[in-house]
Amino acid sequence: MTAPDGSLRSRKWLGDYGERVAVDYLRSKGARILMRNFRGPKKGEVDIIARNRKLLLFVEVKTRREGSKIRPLDAVDKPKQVLIERGANAWLKRLGTRNLPWRFDVIEIYVEEGKKPRLNHVKDAF
Known about the structure:
By secondary structure, the chain is α+β, with helices and mostly antiparallel strands.
């Protein structure tokens, strides 16, 4: 993806863009976004925390350029899952309950210059 001045966009820009696409998608499916980029203690982290009816969603967003050799889901390896789980546990502790349905999802975003992003929602990813 290129910027208006013709330079390549940074990886951070690409990740932020993917998160915005994921938020729009979740909202279109009726979810309410509770928090973005939640950081809990002990390096716990969750990209998006959302609620869809009674279901709490802890969502990791991975964005790649179309044609990338590595599938975005593959980047959510065991160490990354541990960080997401820590973040989710910190959020649940903040709520004061674990007695509600929740799951871990991954939203894969594929981008290509001049085209609408392609999205794949992997529910209950781990």
